[in-house]
Specification:
single chain; alpha+beta; Jelly Rolls; 6-stranded antiparallel β-sheet; 29 helices; 47% helix; flat
Amino acid sequence: MYDDNPDRYRTALRLLAERRSLTDAETVEYLRGLALSPQGDIRSLRALWGLQALAALDTNTKHRLLGHPYAAVRAWTVRFLSEQTEWSDEDIRILQQLSQGEPVASVRLEIACALRRIRHGQSLEVWQTLALRANDTHDTVIPFMLWLAWEAQLSHALSINADAQEKRLDRILGWLAEHAGESPILVRDILPRTMRRLLAENPNVQLARCLNIVHQCREITAQKAALRGILEGLKGRSVQPPENWHKIVAELNDLTDSELPGLINELGIVFRDPRSIHTALNVLRNTNSKDAELLHALQSLAVINPTEALPLLRQRWQSQCSDAVRLVLLRNLANYDDPAIASMLIDSWKQLSPAVRAEVIKTLQRRRAWARALLEAVARKQIPVSELHSNTVLAVRAFQDAELNRLLEKVWGQVRETPAEVEKKIEQFRLAMYQGRGDPDRGRAVYEKHCAQCHRFRNQGHEVGPDLDGAERSVEYLLINILDPNRVVGQPYFTRLILTKDGKVLTGLLAQEDAESITIRRENNVLETVPKTQIEQMKVETRSLMPENLDQNISEQGFRDLIAYLVANPFVTEVYVAGPIRPDAARLDRWLANKMAPVEEKGLVWQTPPVGPAGRILIPLAKYDLAGRDVSYIYAEIENKAAMKTELRVSSTVAYRIWLDGRLLLTKEKPTPRVQQDEVSVPVELSPGRHRLLIEALCLDRPGEIYVCFHDPQRQIQQIRVPGAKP
């Protein structure tokens, strides 16, 4: 146990476990003494592991070890204590003492984890002690583990017989309401989740209890947290108010808080309270209502879709309003089966922004009559056919209407591409990656228009599809997944197609499902909840929500720009190339000594070839049959704001030497017949500022190629643009 070689002490522990039956009392006492030693640190921990392996860790030793000065010993003892099948009052008493004074977060985390498993009448008091500790408020794990332990208490209370259940729930929920204002963890992590958990069990039974908790909370912050939890638990539902609703509303309205009335009104709409509905409708009527007020009212009314709201929604649509308001208006309008809505949306097409137009298409494809109006508008060129995509086709075909399908074929053309056509398209754009520059700044605009509705990248966009920050993001990976999104589709991204009893078609990804409803996630991270009683038919399409025809809406240059923006570890593309020329040692020395930039050398002609996102830099063949003697030079400048460690990665068919800031990094002595990806790499430390990269490539009797990149998935390195370079 005193040997710090991990192979040896781990072997010792393994042998102890394997020879448990042969272990004598002297060995056990030795390990116990070492574990309990107040001077022990890692050796005490190893001795503790040894006692556990020998099944010799008795209750008295555990209790003493919970007071050990070494935090890791205390943490592991808590873990071993939680693995018992029964717990005594003394176990819980000592654990309670530890919870009150434990200074180390890792030990408190183990206690929180243990409380999920420990079943004892007094374990709740230990949990309460931890939950009221303010120093764990900003911990990234402890609050969530406390919730899991609390949820275990709730689940147990909800599973016992009715009489005992009432007493148990009244006790634990009464404590929560009384003390919620004393702890940020209770307000932020426990109280809202408790409301959602209770409502998931049986909303008709538990709703009155949830409102009682709101009433019992002593602090307004806790009351608001509980109301938000109730609203989240009832999201997408319209239910009857419990008997205590009006009494509690009357008391809450006496409180002075700017946010509380809005929460009460939103919950009132869920309950179809006429006063709450009237308040929301007045916000729509008021021409001076601010966007925030409008959005809140629209989102609340979308739960119940009152008939009297439709004229107000039309008036708002036809007035001047922001894109944010228009997008929510569309979601509300989509819930009304009125053919005139389609005409209104189509007639306003020219006044709409691209983001709103995309949402209009998604709205029109949801009802049979609206889909016909959409296709007719495309046929008469009122709406460009490029605004349609494969998801529109999928939604229209789901109606199984022969007339609609004929109209679709007329305006769209062939409905599905064959695999051969997809491969041909990918090859076309693969070649395009070599035929011109990509501009990441322009690529960002392409991303925001076509990708941000469903993907998140660099803290922009919505989390509907996979997060692009975590994707491989090589040029080939991006091309295949953009142009053939259905080649490989993971089950979480299968498209749900729902036909409702009132004739709507909804498409999206499964976000949540319970016994009463299903929630799908659409573009822009919009969640739509449909009661299962309203579903006529639901299909699971083993295809992505991502459209297949982005090549029809993005030019080859747009694709180059998009790839340049998205690709991880981008190739060095902003380069000057000179050659083939005869090597000159004095000239090279001047460059490496940083006496002058190579592009300032008189008598040399530097070209600025358009290097595409694929990164291929062409090396011209040698002049005058001087293969093996002529060279070409490639020069580039990069800049980084902070010090960083990275790698320079190179692949080529030519021999070369590479310098960074005058220091030789890599040498390749002989050419090779083909390019091997990431053929060689070298670690590089970059100080903040600008750096010079110089490559000397040996010319051959045929053109060569070289690819250079820095390992830079976070895109901290900026390439200095070549002046006057064309795409």
